[in-house]
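[Automated response] Your request has been received and processed.

Submitted sequence:
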Amino acid sequence: MLYSIRMRAAEGGPHEQGGHHISGAERLVTKEELEQISSELVHRALTHSKGCADFIRITIDAIPDEAIHRIPCLTIADADGPIKEAQTTDHEATAPPLPLSSHQQAEALLTTHTAITPVAFRRAVSQLLSLPESMRGAMLVDMRTGQRLDPWGQRGVRVSRMSFADEKAAITALNAAGYSGVHLEEALVLASKVLSAPGVVGELCISDDPDYTTGYVSYGNTYHRLHHMKPVGSPLGGRLFFVDATADIAAIKKYLETTVTLVNPPIVSLQGENHETL
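Generated structure:
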């Protein structure tokens, strides 16, 4: 039996009462790992670059084996190869403006490899970046028009209850290819679950971590990393899930938020080829 452990942290009180989101993370772990992972998640909430949380919620549920859904991991594509992101705590540091090429590349990848239209991409990105603060979850948007389809406001859709099936094997595979860091590990798991949802055709992610500027798009079997998606020090970011307008939005939300999912270890590609981990 595994346990789902989830942490949500905010500053100024609970999210539901207007608290400012600081951090969120989760794992699927064994009973023996619960105490250590709980401590690690609390430490993360108290030392995050977005601030020190004064509200931390830890939720733990036992998960029976028959409730666990297993899926393949997306393949990492990264035309530039692994880049070690420089972390800085100096938000006053001079940073170049957001390069157009990163957003242009994201648009080209999604509109070339999926049915997402350029109009939909631009409209959805404009909606995301015009928000006064980052959403806690993701927007579901029409892949043809860019119109937002979900009614859940700042909360959006929160992808939950997921982890690598074998975290040590996954980290070993990533390290062997020159990748490291919790941002990539968690994003790869999340992106793999998102694209396994029926009706979801692609995703764009810009991190809301002020010190992390790498984002990604995902489509088909591919997780494509994009560097310098925003200026260093910007706290704004978010996720867009592009879906077919005929899809069952409530069913997508239920799958992403409640289906317990283990993701197989990844295969890494530096040239953008697509592989499926079985």
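Summary generated for your ticket: The longest strand covers residues 2-11. Confidence is low (pLDDT under 50) at residues 83-100, 271-278.
If you did not submit this request, please reply to this message.
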